[in-house]
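Study both lines:
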Amino acid sequence: MKLRIAYERSVNVLVSSLAMVAQRLPFLKNLTPIFGGAAGGNFAAPLTVTFVGTHSLSGQSVMIVPVNGGTATATVTAGDQFVWSFKASPHTLAAASGEIDGVEELPEGLAFFGPQSGVMSLGGVPTEPGEYAIVLKGYRRGDRLAGTTDPYLFTLTVAPGEDPPTPYEEFVATFWSGENLNDPLLVNATADPDADGIQNVMEFVLDLDPTKPDVMPGAFGIDPEDPQKMRYEVPLNIAAGAVAVGFEEGSNLETGWAEVLSENVTRTETSIVLSVPLAGKKFYRLKVVME
């Protein structure tokens, strides 16, 4: 008789415990006691438990959850500001890490920020186009020694941005705007809108005004280091440093132009100097080549 009473009590305790678990864990879809509660000790249908996973059932699941409408994928243009925020549940983030192809790194220009109110952000200005499969982990502690989220795959596509304007494009944009910037007769390198005989590219190299007639700048004289030579110094636009500039010589103004030997030409950021023997009759001209 005592054994029967002990059995019934243990069955009732088990049924009550399982019922409490079912109330706390809504993902337990069906819960049927193995043992019947009646005194006869009859068996009921087997216990059926349906749940998301072992980690969820035990309360150990931690995960990265995007916030502010974020998703597991995002696209940004190279050179633009980017922010993607997330939090770890149930962790309060103290640190974060990301890796690409197993190496802990992030796309150039991006870094982690936070946490602020439990929210971390991945942000910055990405610079290199490409598609990045970033594996993220959040940590409970800043020293990363205890408590981490499960890995989370975040795919970021960095689209190519527009090429920045060249120094020449910036130069013409100081004189024209709007639709005029699309007019080849005004802005092309070989155009001469002010009809002064100096093409735009030369105006750029010499830092002249392509909208107003100019004369070729420069100073002629005797080379102070060698009185047997003529010296011609031409000021240059620092912004035109990538443009090839040199001198050519010829016996007439029509044909036969040849490049002056490099030993007779000195170029700096702000000027180019021609120094050649005074003997003989020759013509010299400045030549620019912009690729």
About this structure: The chain has five helices and 15 strands. Residues 164-291 form a domain with the Immunoglobulin-like fold (CATH 2.60.40). The chain has three domains: 2-58, 63-159, 164-291. The CA atoms of residues 117 and 233 lie 65 Å apart.
